[in-house]
Amino acid sequence: MAELKAVTGRGLPDRVREADHPQSMLVRFGPEAPLKLDAGVALSPFQVAYQTYGTLNAARTNTVLVCHALTGDQHVFNRHPVTGKSGWWETMIGPGKPIDTERYFVVCANVLGACMGTTGPASTHPATGMPWGLDFPVITIRDMVRAQAMLLDRLGIDTVFAVVGGSMGGMQVLQWAASYPERVFAALPIACATRHSAQNIAFHEVGRQAVMADPEWRGGRYYVEGANPRRGLAVARMGAHITYLSDAALHRKFGRKFQDRANPTFSFDADFEVESYLRHQGSSFVERFDANSYLYLTRAMDYFDLTADYGGVLANAFRAARTRFCVVSFTSDWLFPTADSRAIVHALNAAGARVSFAEITTDKGHDAFLLDEPEFIGIVGGFLDSAAAARGLPAAKR
Amino acid sequence: MLTRSRSDVVMAQAARSPANNVRLDHLLVAEMIEPDSRVLDVGCGDGELLKLLENRGVDGRGIELSREGVNDCVAKGLAVIQGDADADLADYPDDAFDYVILSQTLQATRHPRMVLEHMLRIGRHAVVSFPNFGNWQIRLRLLFGGRMPRTHNLPDTWYDTPNIHFCTIKDFRDLCLTVGAKMERARALDAWGRPLRLNAPWWFWNLFGEQAVFLLSRRDG
C-alpha cells in the first residue's frame, strides 16, 4: 500500500483515483452478494459506479438503462470528472431529448472491468491492497449485465422501461433481453451484433498486442512499478479509432491536407492532418483510460456470441421475449455492418418478437451513434415515445 | 417497392371513406382480416394501413423499403423493419403470420410470383391489392393514344415508373392458379372507389375494376 501511495504521490492522474473512489454514485456488494462470473469464479467484494438523471416515478416503471461502449463510461449527461468534457451522449439524453430526463429515470453504470469506479483491473484487490492487474478474472458481456442487474435490484428497480446502447453497449442490450426478458419492456440495440466477427477480434488483438508490447506494461503490473504503457495504449486507440470512422468521413474531414505546413518534411513527423488527429486521439485516450481495462473489455467483446450461448439458434435467445425491439444500423459502419443488425432482426422475427429496424444513411461510420444524426435521433425518439405510450408513461411536452 | 413512398403520395389521394377518412382500398383489405390475428404488411409505406389494422386489434408487423416510410412507421409506434419484398421474405419462417398483406406493391416487385409464393408460405392467408391494368380507361388510352397509359392513380411515365410488373385481374387469377393458391374472396373497386357487384362476371371486373383485392390461402390449407 505504501508503495502505491508513493506512486500516487508522484502525481498519477485523476484516472487512477476514479478506479476506487469515483466521482459517481457507488453501490458496494459485500461477501453476501458475490458476482458469479462466466469464467467460473466469484468476484467479491465488488462495486458498481453509476450516474442517474431524472426522477424515478412512484410505480418505478420509467427507468432507462443506458449501456456504454468499450471506451465510454457512466458520464452520459454531465461534465466528465477526468477530462472536463461534456457527457458523451448529450445529443440523445436530456430534457426534451429522445431519452427525456423530464420523463425517464436514466441510469448508466460503469461496466464491470472498466476503470471509472466499477471494479476492474485498476481497482484495488481487497486481499493484497494492490491493484488487481492481470489477477482480475476475465469477464464477459453477460457478467457486465449481471452486475447491472444487481445494481438495479439494489436500487429497487424490478423492470426497466428501456435498455439502450450502441456497440458494446448494444451487446449488453441484447444480453439483457436474452437473460432478463421479463425485466425489459423495450430494447434498443444500436450498431452492434450478436457475435463479434473474426475481423473485429483481429482488430482487438492488434490493440492488445500493442499494449502488451510496450515495455512499460510490465506484465500488467505497471501500476505498482510507477509505469504506464502510454505508447502501447495510444497505438491501440489509434488503430481502433480508424475502425470507428469510414473512408468517406476521413476523406471529408482531412483528405490529404498537411498539418501546419505547405510541403512534406521528408521525415516521419505528422505531416498529414489525419496523422496529427490520430496521435491526438491516442494521447488524450491514455489520460482517461486504463490499459489493462482495455485488454479486459476488448476480450469480453471477443467472447460475445449469443448464438453459441443458445445452442446455435439465435432465435432461441429471444424465445421468451415480450420486449419490443428497435434495431438501428448505419450504412457506413464497417465494424458492425448492417448485415449484423439484420441477423438480429431475422432472429427476432423468427422468435415472433415485436421488432422495428432502421438503417440510417450516413458516411460517419460506426461512431455515428454518438453524433448528431437527426434521422437516427428521430427514430430513437419515435420508438421510445410510442413505447412510453404503451407502458403508460407520460408523453413528451412539446 | 422501389420508390414506394412516391406511390404512397399518389395513393394518399385515392378515394377515402367520407365517414372516417380511411382509404377505401385499405378498408377493403381490413375487412378481409380477422381481428386478433398476426399480420405482416409487405411494403407498408407510411404505415396507414398497419395503423388501421392495429386499431382493430391486430398484431401487426411491416416491411418497408424507403427510409422515410420506416421512420414514419416507427414514430407511429409500429413494428416495421427496413427491407425489400424481393430479398427479405425468404428469411421469415413458415407460418409466422395469419395474414401477409401486399397492398399496392405487387406490380413494383421484381419477382411477383416468388413474392406471392413466400407470402403463402409465411402466412396462412395472403391479401393482395393491385391496380388493374385491364381497366377500360387504360385499354382506351393504349388503343387510341398509342402510348403507355397514364391515369390519376398511375401517373408515372413509362421510363420512371416503379411499377415494372403490371397485370390485369385475369392475369392475377392465372398467377394464383399457377402457384396453387386458393382464392377465398375477391373484390374490385371502380374508378370512383366504389365496390363492383360481387356477382358480376370476371370479364366485367377486369374491364371496370380499377383496383382489385384478393384474399388467398394455400390450397393444402
Can you walk me through this structure?
The complex is a heterodimer of chains A (398) and B (221). Chain A has twelve helices and twelve strands. With 398 residues, chain A is an alpha/beta fold. Chain A folds into two domains: 13-200 and 304-391, Alpha/Beta hydrolase fold, catalytic domain (Rossmann fold, 3-Layer(aba) Sandwich), CATH 3.40.50; 205-298, Rna Polymerase Sigma Factor, Chain: A, CATH 1.10.1740. Chain A is globular, with a radius of gyration of 21 Å. Chain A starts with a helix and ends in a 7-residue tail after the last helix. The model of chain A is unreliable at 1-11 (pLDDT under 50). With 221 residues, chain B is an alpha/beta fold. Chain B has a single domain (4-218), classed as Rossmann fold, CATH 3.40.50.150. Chain B contains nine helices and seven strands, in the order ααβαβαβαβαβααβαβ. A seven-stranded mixed β-sheet of chain B has the order 3-2-1-4-5-7-6, with helices on both faces. In chain B, α6 (112-122) links the parallel β4 and β5 (123-131). The longest helix of chain B is centred in the middle third of the chain and has 11 residues, at 112-122.
Oligomer: heterodimer
Q: Can you identify the CATH superfamily of chain B?
A: Vaccinia Virus protein VP39
Q: Give helix and strand order of chain A, one letter per element, not per position.
A: HHEEEEEEEEHEHEHHHHHHEHEH
In the residues of chain A, how many domains can be counted? 2
CATH class of chain B: Alpha Beta
Strand order of the largest sheet of chain B: 3-2-1-4-5-7-6
Low-confidence blocks of residues of chain B: 1-6
Report strand % of chain A: 5-15%
CATH architecture designation of the largest domain in chain A: 3-Layer(aba) Sandwich
User: Quick one: overall form of chain A?
Assistant: globular
Helix amount of chain A: 25-40%
